[in-house]
Fold this sequence. Notes:
This protein is of the alpha+beta class. Helices cover about 40% and strands about 10% of the residues.
Amino acid sequence: xxxANRTAEQWxxxxxxxxxxxxxxxxxxxxxxxxxxxxxxESRQNLKGMGRAAGVPVEPxxxxxxxxxxxxxxxxxxxxxxxxxxxxxLYVIYVKGPDTCDGKxxxxxxxxxxxxxxxxRKEEDGGNGNxxxxxxPLSVRAAGFGGENGLCVSRLDW
Length: 158
């Protein structure tokens, strides 16, 4: 929960005395999440460069702005554009925060959704009511499988 209350940039800073319970492997996890964040940021930079060189918006500027704003939220590890081509999706990797909505959501997830909903208002075109882009959260999370958390495997018998 401590990571969910701080931005990833704050995870790098010295531990405040109030974090005395955050010891041992928890620091290792925070370090690995920062490594993951840095790798994703480097990948995003490389994809932007590749897109510019090819004249293709692999990570369009509009999505870069939203991903960067999302990455400033407490609990967010990283955000970016999945796949190639852009304009249709954004992913977020985050640390689960305290439960909300009777356990159906959590505070970090709620803050991501709030930012994205507010983003629609920022993108309105000249006040005439036309929206340039519509951003709506479509939350996906790891599902329990065989008593373990992880990806759920389904078989389609067509």
